[in-house]
Amino acid sequence: MSQDIPLSAEMKSAVFQPLYLQISQLLLERIASGEWPAGTYIPSEASLADSYNVSIGTLRKALNELVSNNVVIRYQGKGTVVAAHDSDSALFRFFNILRENGERSLPLSRVLARHLRTASEEEALALDIEPGSKVIHIWRVRDLDGAPAILEHVYIDAARFPGMDREPDILPNTLYQLYQQKYACTVANAHEQIKAINAGPDEVLHLEAEEGEALLRIYRIARDFQDKAVEYRVSTVMTRHHAYFNQL
Fold first, then answer.
1. pTM of the predicted protein model
2. Within the chain, where are the H helices?
3. Three-class DSSP category at 233
4. What pLDDT is attached to residue 1?
5. CA dihedral 158, 163, 169, 174 (to 10 degrees)
6. pLDDT tens for each residue of 26-83
7. 147-157 and 134-144 as β-strands: parallel, antiparallel, unpaired?
8. Max intra-chain CA distance, the chain
9. Are 115 and 171 in the same domain?
């Protein structure tokens, strides 16, 4: 029999939270700690239920929470694996700019600049780092259907991603996959704020927009399994042939 893993005092005292959610949080903490890396199978439901001294039904509900949040993937007859960001899953889960008819097109990225600098107040606040900390700034254009469609400014904590201002020489199209594979940092969720803006000089130059043309600006903070900020991204989107799609 496997060793029992007791619930923390904090969780025991949280009587308002169902037991399966408490178990789900404990499993999430073990994934976040690196005990079960991305792409690996976690122990069987029976083994985990025994470890936490709960029923199979409770353990299964806990895993269902992680499945619904794209933390793990359940394979019938094989087991449950910690989700990994391959190029397709990372791209299409977090990429919501589609053709106006709802069809997806593959974005291609062109890096305009990448450098290390001191964070602005806005960037430090978004990344939850100390003022004066260093960030890596990646400035790139993303083409859709052969035309420039998105102008992106990406900011990451230089202390968390050492050396990324210099390598790799060519950044991949999907940065989230790079974060996970090279730095063991998995983006679990993201929160976005969207505003309407008018095109300025940068958009005219890099997106071929008309001066004053109506565009979308998306402010995104991506977070890991422990709810720590991973990345702050500001994207400006051409809306002539594409739109932001979101399923509620």
1. 0.77
2. 9-13, 19-32, 45-52, 56-68, 87-94, 121-127, 175-183, 201-206
3. strand
4. 41
5. -50
6. 998 888 778 998 888 999 999 999 999 999 999 999 999 888 877 888 998 889 998 8
7. antiparallel
8. 69
9. yes
Tell me the pLDDT band of 173, cut-offs 50, 70 and 90. Answer: confident
Tell whether 101 and 200 lie within a shared domain: yes
Q: How far is the C-alpha of 217 from the C-alpha of 210, rounded, in Å? A: 16
| Mean predicted lDDT score pLDDT of the chain | 88
| Same domain, yes or no: 111 and 162 | yes
Q: Backbone phi, then psi, for 71, in 5-degree steps?
A: -85, -40
Give the sign of the dihedral formed by CA 155, CA 156, CA 159, CA 161: negative
pLDDT recorded at residue 10 = 45
**3-state SS assignment for residue 13:** helix
What per-residue string of b and e applies to 200-237 under the rule 16 or more CB within 10 Å gives b?
eeebeebbebeeebebbebebbbbbbeeebbbbbbbbb
- What's the pLDDT at 205? 98
Which structural domain, as residue segments, surrounds residue 14?
9-82
Cross-strand bridge partners of residue 214:
198
Contact of 181 with 232, CB cutoff 8 Å: no
- Of 136, 133, 120, which Cα lies nearest the Cα of 183? 136
Q: Is the pLDDT of residue 8 over 80?
A: no
Q: Is residue 188 part of a domain?
A: yes
Domain identity same for 22 and 48: yes
Q: CA triplet 201, 190, 98: central angle to 5 degrees?
A: 60
